[in-house]
Specification:
The chain is an alpha/beta fold. The chain contains 11 helices and 9 strands. It has a 7-stranded mixed sheet with strand order 5-4-3-6-7-9-8, with helices on both faces.
Length: about 325
Amino acid sequence: MLNNVNLLEKFEKMSYTINLRSLQVYNLLNNFRLTRLKCKKRMSTATKKETNEQEASTEETTHFGYQTVKESEKVRKVHKVFEDVAKSYDLMNDVMSIGIHRIWKDIFLERLGPCHGTRLLDMAGGTGDIAFRYIKYLANIPNPKNRQSHVTISDINQHMLDVGQERAKDLKYITQSLPQMSVEWKCENAEKLTFPDNSFNAYTIAFGIRNCTHIDRVLSEAYRVLQPGGRFMCLEFSHLTNDVLQWLYDQYSFQVIPPMGQILAGQWDPYQYLVESIRKFPQQEEFKKMISAVGFQMVQYENLSFGVTSIHSGFKL
């Protein structure tokens, strides 16, 4: 009997020792597993960080004026420029063109020659300069069939749109005051529009396309949202056809415009950028080829003021 009791005690001690060791082994393995998971997580984080850094370093570069910057950086910088000058945008254009931009825009609308029933998308049209001329133009021609016209003013910068909408209210260029015209304001990226295909029969962009990072994408989107038979028109600062005049224009641009911007609007850098962006914009013939490349037909351009600006036009046929 005593031997049985001793044997039972030994068995209990052995079981306890085995269980204790099993628990120790379990804890050891569990700690190893947790350490492994932590290391794996750290490695994953480090790999992700390294991947992001590699992606950032391999991101395509572009120009911001004469600076070379990453594409994402240009978007931010351009946005900041127009955010800063939104309220003085008309003054900025007056400074850069000695007031002649108003005549260029009038000629631009005359070349478009809209008729009643036109659905116009005016891109980079934040302050409404082109849209207001469009509304006024249609108001001055007969509309015997009472056709309804439309204009969507779109810009990537909400500050510019806010300024334009305030101006529209002052001029009563709003849908409620225009019986045969509907007006819409929408914040959009010209490189990736949300409008359906074939939404408009006219597309205008004035002094805006050179600020876009991918001009080819802007042109492709313009083609997509236009109806067959629709017309694309672009008014943009360009390059003079005479070397002597170009040299004089350069002196005025770089020596006069930024200081005038500082004096009149308290802004030097935006004016410096805008002058540089003009010089980086493609020559007339090169831009014409870009417009044709996305599918536009009957592409042509007209120089204004010896090429200080140009009107480019094409049709979706």
